[in-house]
């Protein structure tokens, strides 16, 4: 089984590096890294926010250009990869399609990434941008806007939770 105890995995790392690495992990992204940075590592808000955004965006830079070629390469060579990408692409399309019909593809991408729920972050946003034909440079800008919005939401939720505990 998977062990999602990020704090234990990265306890020997400097807090800033641990925050960035946690933010790079699919599903965790900045939804996990920001609260951990603020509550566990006690990083200042600006530092926690910067390292979470940086870590969340770093893999996206590569994903928006490589998801298509890598997926096609792996699908041709592995049934397991084919099943995984079919599942992932179908799931992202289903979650993204409603928003794209309502708001248009570009605004939908920002909102899709900005909502801090599982499977709607920057990684899935990169896949959605590929599936819906948004050019990589434009995708990066739109995903970055969504990540910043998600960061603000997670920060507010975390700060509210911290204040309620005090």
Automatic annotation (TrEMBL):
Keywords: Membrane, Transmembrane, Transmembrane helix. The chain crosses the membrane at residues 21-43, 49-75, 107-134, 140-165. InterPro entries: Sm_multidrug_ex. Pfam families: Sm_multidrug_ex. This is Ligand-binding protein SH3.
